Amino acid sequence: MLNSKLFLSDKIFKKDIEVKLMRDGFGLGLLEAGEKDPRIVVLSADLKESTKASYFAEKFPERFIEVGVAEQALVTIASGMANYGKIPFCTSYAIFSPGRNWEQIRTTIGIDSYPVKIIGAQSGLNIGHYGVTHQGLEDIALMTVIPNMNVVVPSDYLEAKKAILLMAEDNKPYYMRLPRIESPVYTTEKTPFKFGKANVLTESKNPEVTIVATGLMVYEALLAYKELEKNGIETIVVNMHTIKQIDEETIIRQAKLTGAVVTVEEHQVIGGLGSIVSSVLSNNFPVPMEILGVQDRFGQSGKPKELFEEYGLTKEDIIKAVKKVIARKNS
Amino acid sequence: MKTHTIDELQEVAKEVRRDVVKMILKAGAGHPAGSLGMVDVFVALYYAILRNDPKNPEWEDRDRLILSNGHICPARYAVMSHVGYFEHKNLLKLGSFKSILQGHPDKRFLSSLETTSGPLGSGLAQAAGIAYAARMDQKRFRTFVITSDGEHDEGNHWEAVAFVGKNNLSNLTMIVDRNNIQIDGFTEEVMPLEPLIDKYKAFHWAILEVDGHNIKEIVEACNKARAIYENPTVIIARTIPGKGVPFMEGNPNWHSKAPNSDEVREAIKDIRNMKGEIEDY
Ligand SMILES: Cc1ncc(C[n+]2csc(CCOP(=O)(O)OP(=O)(O)O)c2C)c(N)n1
Ligand SMILES: [Mg+2]
């Protein structure tokens, strides 16, 4: 059963559910935030259109700063602007920012906790055609490891929009990752969204497993949930949209409730959502876990669907992992 | 390989341009402007300059060609197929799953690419490492590296410019694709590069300039660079983005019009995504 307190879309499992770009949610949210707060400035590293920073740039050209293909300058200039008192949003692709400028982020944004917001678009395998050099699969690891940094991974268009408005008001550094492709808008304007508070999307009298997912994998987990339900296996799906600060309370409560956890992410399993959830559980309430994600491999070109199949990130892979973890729990 | 006349090479370049357009349309993604603009340079390199053997791509003493701005790989792929590195039919699999021709150059799938590339600004430094190491071992081969104008925004590139200059890596030749555009607009608007020649001079490089669509000039400049023993050489190739495809290059705005106008922005966008026929990343 869907959690009625979350007001999820009534088209959630319908064929005609609306699909939208999370990048558009970000771009339009940024425009709205910019209208509210004149301190907001947006920096681009020669990727204005595809990161959707263009919406802001058209409306507020005087607050839009083009730095060229220079990701190290992108974040360090932002650090200086934040030092002065602005609220900078840095836009590029995840593989270049934070991929190329990690130490600069750590030193000039992390240590003094400047309110710089780093937006890594085109993350994950789903970038498809462009292949290995452009598939950011390590950004969650890179950013969660920096003290003071907050890490957000929205799971649909509306969440991306809500996230940007919230982080604009929070005087702390943030990293947000965004995929390239469109995805189903399964939440609604009324769905609550609060950093550090995971959304428990489904409810059940007798759940056997909790599936904790993030980003594009949340909807895949919902599809798995639906099919498992048909086969008499009840699961709980958790949307872990904030990777840091992680919602420990929900993770522990879920582990106690179901006694088995599957995590799913479009990211390396080393240092990603699965690693973080397993460390929370090891410290508090260990249960059998299956960690789905990219298994210490590099990506390659292909259609998103082909890549999700190749790297084990489909509904079917989630169903298999659920069955496996149930067997482990019961053995 | 047999030697070709310039006329023959111009014919090859025409075929390659046809290939590039077909490849990118079939893939539904890619960078036509930069790729088409550099076709003549790749033809000159593979047919008349590089000392290599397509049948023996691992030959130790081959000249190296590093492509830093990996997004223009369709042009390199097409020329490589014409000189016999792999079968021509692979071209239409650009960027598809398991294809040897990945969306950006991926050495795991095709070792003759020398390096995996796409992220801008790193190719010159890699080439410098190869050239430096080769000189340590008294190797005679030459390292060529292609870079774009847009990637001159990157610190990594200029760090390498200094290193190459300091170490007088005269066994290295860089060809710069000076097409005046990058993604967000004209280079001189996004991040001015001029005076580019003076900048390289200040770092102790020898500088040559060519019309990047004149194969004869490109070949002569590369031969001249081989004979310069005192300095590394940069060849600034003036190119027209989208060269050879009328609806892409037909617009005279490329060199003259005020960079700020919406029309120019639209033209740049049109060229980048082939008037909306391919996906815009
Ligand atoms: C480090 C890095 N940052 C950003 C990008 C995205 N990007 C791809 S092509 C490009 C434009 C660079 O200009 P140029 O290479 O001159 O493009 P062209 O003339 O071929 O259109 C950018 C910013 C990248 N590939 N690498
Ligand atoms: Mg260019």
Task: Please outline what is shown here.
Chain A has helices at residues 22-36, 54-59, 71-84, 102-110, 139-144, 157-169, 217-230, 248-258, 273-284, 304-310, 315-330; strands at residues 19-21, 40-44, 64-66, 87-93, 117-121, 150-152, 174-177, 182-184, 199-200, 209-213, 235-239, 242-244, 261-268, 289-294.
Question: How do the helices and strands line up, and which of them pair or pack?
Answer:
The complex is a heterodimer of chains A (331) and B (281).
Chain A: E1 19-21, H1 22-36, E2 40-44, H2 54-59, E3 64-66, H3 71-84, E4 87-93, H4 102-110, E5 117-121, H5 139-144, E6 150-152, H6 157-169, E7 174-177, E8 182-184, E9 199-200, E10 209-213, H7 217-230, E11 235-239, E12 242-244, H8 248-258, E13 261-268, H9 273-284, E14 289-294, H10 304-310, H11 315-330
Helix pairs in contact in A: 1-6, 3-4, 7-11, 8-9
Chain B: H1 6-27, H2 32-37, H3 39-49, E1 64-67, H4 73-83, H5 123-136, E2 143-148, H6 155-166, E3 172-178, E4 181-182, E5 185-186, H7 187-190, H8 196-202, E6 206-211, H9 215-226, E7 233-238, H10 246-249, H11 262-272
Parallel strand pairs in B: 1-2, 2-3, 3-7, 6-7
Antiparallel strand pairs in B: 4-5
Helix pairs in contact in B: 1-3, 1-4, 3-4, 3-9, 5-6
Bound molecules: thiamine diphosphate (TPP) and magnesium ion.
Thiamine diphosphate sits between chains B (31, 33-34, 69, 71-72, 118-121, 148-151, 179, 181-183, 241) and A (46-47, 69, 96, 100).
